[in-house]
Amino acid sequence: MPRRTTTHAARKQASEHDHQKSLIRWADLALPGHESALLFAIPNGGHRHKATAAKLKQEGVRRGIPDLFLAIPTDRHHGLFIEMKRAIKKGTPKPRTTAHQDRYLAAFAAMGYKAEVCHGWEDAANAVARYLGRPDLAIT
After folding, report:
1. Which residue from 15, 77, 96, 134 has the highest number of Cβ atoms inside 10 Å of its Cβ?
2. What is the pLDDT of residues 31-55, one digit of tens each?
3. Does residue 3 or residue 75 have the better pLDDT?
4. In the predicted model, what is the mean pLDDT of residues 82-102?
């Protein structure tokens, strides 16, 4: 089987993990202590050993659940779900959501939550700033 190759631009691009890690770092610096702790990851993705994956499925892990949740209600929404995607770089395809992700995002939005797909940590930080009504937190 031929070896799968990636373009130089794709290899150099930060991963979704890197962007999510940067968002949490930003939140820890930008949000007041208790609010920072209310932005947390929902570890549903990733590659796992089959036995671990089976146990997690029994515990309620669901394919398609968004990556992050901000558990702060506002006057308009119960909380903010974020589906994190890598940032869009010129010359690379835009990462897309799966059908499972689309269904959950729509279901959460229908139940009064804000649900956004964010491309890169800056986009996600701006989504958090908009959601909280805090333009001073926006990344320019």
Report:
1. 77
2. 988 899 999 999 887 778 889 888 9
3. 75
4. 89
Q: Any idea how long the chain is?
A: 140
β-strand pairing of 114-119 with 80-85: parallel
Q: Give residue 59's region: left, alpha or beta (phi > 0; psi -120 to 50).
A: alpha
Is-contact 102 63, C-beta < 8 A?
A: no
- The arrangement of strands across the sheet holding 39-41 comes to 39-41, 68-70, 80-85, 114-119
The 3-class SS string of 114-127 reads EEEEEECHHHHHHH
Domains of the chain, earliest start first: 14-137 (3.40.1350.10)
- Report whether 16 contacts 84 (CB < 8 A): yes
Strands (DSSP E) contained in 31-122 are 39-41, 68-70, 80-85, 114-119
- Of 62, 31, 43, the C-alpha closest to 124 is 31
